Amino acid sequence: MFKSVIIGVSGGRAHGHADAFAHMQRGRLVAVSARQRDKLDEFADKYDVSARYTDYREMFAKEKPDLVQVSTPPDARLEIMQAAHEAGVPGLIVEKPLAIEGEDYRAICEWVASKPGIKIAINHQLQFHPRRLVLQRLVNEGAIGKLRFIDASSGMNLAYQGTHSLQAIGAFTPGLVPKTVFGAAAGANGIQPNIREHYAPDQSLAALEYSNDLPASLRCGENAPRVPGGDAIYQHKRIAVYGERGFVHWTMWGWETLIDGVYASGEHLYPDQDVLGQAAMCDAMFDWLDDDSKVHPLNLDAAIRDFEVILALYTSALTHQVVELPFDPPDGLIGQLRDALG
Length: 342
Fold this sequence. Notes:
By secondary structure, the chain is α/β, with parallel strands linked by helices. It has two domains: 2-125 and 276-299, NAD(P)-binding Rossmann-like Domain (Rossmann fold); 126-270 and 305-324, Dihydrodipicolinate Reductase, domain 2 (2-Layer Sandwich). 37% of the residues lie in helices and 25% in strands. It is built from ten helices and 15 strands. Helix 1 crosses helix 8 (270-290), helix 7 (158-172) crosses helix 9 and helix 9 runs parallel beside helix 10. The radius of gyration is 20 Å and the shape is globular. The N and C termini lie far apart (51 Å).
């Protein structure tokens, strides 16, 4: 049985982590850490967790967890990864986004280059939603033929949901990597100081080109299409994948396919799909902890590549130029966007 702990309890994702343990056979939640004692106790009481810490380093030392699930603001990501590595923690699942701008992205890349030996995945549980798995399998097995175009979007901005959309493209195109980014951005409300330390323009649009010359479109924020059945803004994530023989289309509340002239569609309940997706994502992490060859599809290297796309989008929006990948992102991109869009 793998021992898991959670750091950070204020956001909804921490509750998603905890709820998922009811659907896991190989993991149990043994401890929780948060800086604010009242929120810590409220969360731990809800999930009947007796081991509670306001210092996650103390939790690492005393609980010796196998898996740490991180639900903190982005500015704490690297610090926690380093501390977990130093404490001998085997694995982490870290909330997205991995970083916010070039400086923290580069610091994470430099740390990863030191080959710390800890297994890290990023919390993109949507890849493991049961319906998404079915559609991903259809595309990956060639049911819609050679891919022609992908359209992905999210109702919230790039900092909150951009990497969800990029990871979705990756899930339907394993083995392909982004080559160029041509981006635009508008709206400065999302790049003003905020308590969650999530900064991104209100609207963004990018034309992406992947290896094999596959084009894709990314839209995040107020300009993204709204999903039927979606209520709260975070529920408007979607992806459509087009091939020579048809297409598949997934949203947080439904799906449709057209394959060789045969159309099918249906609905699903996002909360039900999500808790199962969260559990399956953790099970994949347990597989990786057991077997080095079973690398988690949401591994840190893949997340670094996705976040590079976001930084390239920002750079393209500021320079009005196509950005070729890989590239070395400049410092201060959020500040530059604040000046340009404010």
